[in-house]
Design brief:
Number of strands of chain B: 2
Shape of chain B: globular
Number of strands of chain A: 0
Strand order of the largest sheet of chain B: 1-2
Shape of chain A: globular
Number of domains of chain B: 1
Distance between the termini of chain B: 42 Å
Strand content of chain A: under 5%
Oligomer: heterodimer
Largest sheet of chain B: 2 strands, antiparallel
Radius of gyration of chain B: 20 Å
Number of domains of chain A: 1
Number of helices of chain B: 12
Helix content of chain A: over 70%
Order of helices and strands of chain A: HHHHHHHHHHHHH
Order of helices and strands of chain B: HHHEEHHHHHHHHH
Structural class of chain B: mainly alpha
Structural class of chain A: mainly alpha
Radius of gyration of chain A: 20 Å
Largest interface: A-B, 45 and 44 residues
């Protein structure tokens, strides 16, 4: 027993040490970004403005087109809230993935390969995403607003499911963007590809997919799994699984899609990294 | 005596720089293949979404299903095609500034202002080619309806052209900001956001609350896209054209003067990092 504890101690120390290093780098990045005050304030304002506009638009749509697929306005707001909160978490942790084309072109990735830290983590720590502060703050506000409007009899299990759904949404978005970033190892990739998925979720992730025709629903569920970010978890929480058209078990298991896709993406990313060739040859 | 340097032919030579965008894009298949995939997906989903929203409603915000769908699809085309990605080629103004290559802009026989215009025209030409192709495909598929009359179509085209001028000047302002601030990343994103949301490219502005629309009237963005699209779908009558043209001309002239002044100030303070 003592042997196990003594083995676990260095591992734990190492684990905590790695977190400490990551947090220090994050704090340094934040201070560096905050030096450019104009840029700093613009970023905060941007995050807030963007998410607020999404809320304004969602509210307007709900007013003008009532009874979207039989969903109440509270239910639709819950979809929007889960999506925004997931997106806020994604931007906070994984936003630097979109910098990979630039990191590769600058040859900085070559340096990452010889440092004593996983390359993927170094990419994530590349810069502090200032806009995430505004995004997350407004997402939290909207989330509180939606929870108050949805009128659900919350149980601890439902609350736990909601937390799992948000984390799943974060990892799903991260997984997709990780897959996309693999392309940057081989091609001069336009930033628009990263923004595309972002925009797809922002545009279509706010509605109950039951209003869409079958082809669109299938596309957004099985090819580009936007449904798993917020729609399916919200359907489970509001008891509308039948209207989703997906098997019940799949709707219930929707928060696990994110972690699964993320693990697959990380494996694929490291496999691709093994074949990476520096821009300098 | 006519010198080679003063002939009309040599005056046109710098405009060959417009080709840079199309050459860059077409030599990298991953760029146009992804562009095509994104446009097709976005258009199809937007079409389905707006048709679905109108399933139980005949008219909303003064737009029927055909008008709203056409407006939204044209907005998608505008967003997808307006921004040519120069960033991943290290070809944005702020990147040139960081690398010091911005200095070449000021020693060439073409003024930086002219060169900027040439490059932007190249971007616009490339975007328009895609946009026109996608528009014709949507028209053939019946997804986008035609304008209610020839006059409405002409008015939409005219206001779109002026809208592009305003968009150009707004972009100049953002790009020139990096002569004063070391970073302008978030300013670029802010303008992209503003010009997407406040122009009506994200969703038809007619659906937004009254206070939002009234506040937006004081900004230049709505006249870049909302005006031409509203004329195109018939939400604004052609009789509103003179008023809209006056607003656009006012913004265009004001922003044009401001950017002219900015270029002069920028030229006086070119900083090449590293000395």
């Amino acid at each position: 027993m003592r042997i196990t504890a003594s083995r676990a101690q260095p591992w734990l120390r190492g684990f905590l040490g790695e977190w400490r290093t990551a947090l220090r780098i994050t704090a340094t990045s934040f201070r560096a970004r905050a030096q450019y005050r104009g840029d700093f304030i613009t970023a905060l304002a941007m995050g807030l403005a963007w998410q607020t506009s999404v809320l304004v638009f969602a509210t307007v749509i709900l007013t003008r087109f009532p009874g979207l697929g039989g969903w109440t306005s509270g239910g639709v707001l819950l979809i929007v809230a889960i999506r925004l909160l997931s997106h806020g978490g994604f931007v906070l942790v994984f936003n630097s993935l979109i910098m990979i084309p630039y990191i590769v072109q600058q040859g900085a990735l070559d340096g990452y390969l010889i440092r004593p830290m996983p390359v993927y983590r170094q990419v994530l720590l590349y810069t502090f995403p200032l806009n995430a502060l505004g995004d997350s703050f407004s997402a939290l506000l909207l989330f509180a607003f939606a929870i108050a409007r949805v009128h659900l009899a919350w149980t601890p299990l439902m609350a736990l499911y909601l937390v799992a759904a948000v984390i799943g949404g974060v990892l799903l978005e991260a997984g997709i963007q990780t897959f996309v970033s693999i392309l940057a190892f081989r091609f001069t990739m336009p930033m628009a590809v990263f923004m595309w998925f972002d925009r797809m979720i922002a545009t279509f992730g706010n509605y109950p997919f039951s209003i869409l025709p079958l082809a669109a629903r299938a596309f957004l569920t099985y090819l580009l799994p936007v449904a798993f970010v917020a729609y399916l978890p919200a359907a489970v929480l509001t008891g509308r699984i039948a209207s989703t058209g997906v098997p019940g078990w799949l709707a219930y298991a929707s928060p696990t899609a994110g972690p699964l896709i993320y693990i697959l993406a990380r494996c694929a990313w490291y496999r691709a990294l093994r074949r990476y060739e520096s821009v300098g040859g | 005596m006519t010198t080679a340097g003063g002939s009309p032919r040599s005056a046109l030579l710098p405009w060959r720089g417009m080709r840079i965008t199309v050459i860059t894009e077409l030599t990298q298949p991953v760029r146009y293949v992804t562009q095509l995939t994104m446009i097709v997906t976005q258009l199809a989903l937007t079409y389905w979404l707006w048709r679905a929203l109108y399933a139980g409603v005949k008219v909303s915000a003064g737009l029927d299903v055909t008008q709203a769908t056409s407006y939204a699809l044209l907005g998608v085309l505008y967003v997808q095609l307006r921004f040519v990605d120069r960033w991943s080629n290290g070809d944005t103004m702020v990147q040139l500034m960081f690398e010091g290559t911005i200095a070449y802009w000021f020693v060439r026989p073409v003024s930086p202002r002219r060169w900027y215009l040439i490059r932007m025209c190249g971007d616009l030409g490339y975007g328009v080619a895609w946009g026109l192709g996608a528009y014709l495909a949507c028209r053939a598929a019946g997804a986008i309806a035609g304008p209610p009359s020839l006059a409405a179509g002409g008015a939409a085209l005219l206001t779109l052209a002026l809208g592009l001028v305003i968009t150009y000047y707004l972009q100049v302002i953002v790009d020139l900001m990096c002569f004063w601030s070391t970073v302008n990343d978030n300013a670029v994103v802010a303008v992209q956001f503003a010009s997407t949301l406040l122009s009506g490219a994200f969703a038809p502005l007619w659906f937004f609350p009254g206070w939002f629309q009234r506040a937006n009237d004081f900004l230049p963005f709505q006249s870049t896209l909302n005006t031409p699209l509203s004329l195109y779908v018939g939400r604004l009558p052609v009789s509103a054209l003179p008023g809209q043209l006056a607003v656009q001309a006012g913004w265009g002239a004001g922003l044009g003067l401001f950017t002219w002044w900015l270029w002069r100030r920028a030229a006086a303070r070119v900083t090449v990092l590293g000395g």
